[in-house]
Specification:
By secondary structure, this protein is α+β, with helices and mostly antiparallel strands. It contains eleven helices and eight strands.
Length: about 210
């Protein structure tokens, strides 16, 4: 029966289930093996319905409440050094009317891109301060997710306006300026980091 294990196979499976519970209910295959869970035991947990497969090599206890942001959580766990960026970060900060159909992920230039079969991921290589500036860590479904700040994301969208469309960038700017906690100083600081201060300024002045 799904979610319940037969008595004869219970000991290693129960120990494995307990290890999942101690780790927020989510483990990657490498982490599970390091904790002493045999790959065959992991397969038995999956077959019996005790854990569900979120993505290749990533499992979660099936009895836990549904994830509010399964795509962001999955990507954050598979690529912990990456940063959610651009349209995905806009959606996180409620700075777009678009519904992302893929997760935009920034990684350091020269780094090996993560292999993620689900959800769809679009990789962007950032370098220097453009990669390190404005990174925030938010707890999403109990998992630390690295996301660029609202101001940094607006600047990034102007930098990548040829790929995203200028309408995406200007909408993000307009919605950012409506936020109660907006900061023009922070916005222009990131515009300088992204080298789009001259590009952004006319759009900013038109909306102030």
């Amino acid at each position: 029966m799904a979610g319940r294990l037969h008595k004869s196979s219970r000991d290693p499976l129960e120990r494995a289930e307990a290890l999942f519970r101690r780790n927020r209910g989510i483990l990657r295959t490498q982490e599970a093996v390091r904790l002493g869970i045999h790959p065959r035991t992991l397969q038995d947990l999956h077959r019996s319905g005790v854990v569900e497969r979120l993505s290749r090599g990533l499992y979660r206890l099936a009895v836990l409440p549904p994830l509010a942001e399964p795509d962001l959580v999955t990507v954050a766990l598979r690529a912990p050094r990456g940063v959610i960026c651009l349209v995905s970060a806009l959606a996180f900060h409620e700075l777009t009317t678009q519904i992302p159909h893929e997760v935009c992920l920034a990684i350091a230039r020269g780094a090996e891109p993560p292999r993620i079969d689900h959800p769809p991921v679009r990789i962007f290589w950032f370098s220097g301060r453009a990669f390190t500036a404005g990174v925030e860590t938010h707890a999403v479904d109990g998992v630390p997710v690295r996301v660029y700040s609202a101001a940094k994301t607006v600047a990034d969208c102007f930098k990548y306006r040829n790929k995203l469309g200028i309408d995406t960038a200007t909408e993000a700017l307009r919605l950012y300026l409506r936020k109660r906690r907006r900061s023009l100083d922070e916005l222009m600081q990131h515009a300088r980091v992204c080298r789009v201060e001259r590009v952004m300024r006319p759009y900013l002045e038109a909306q102030l």
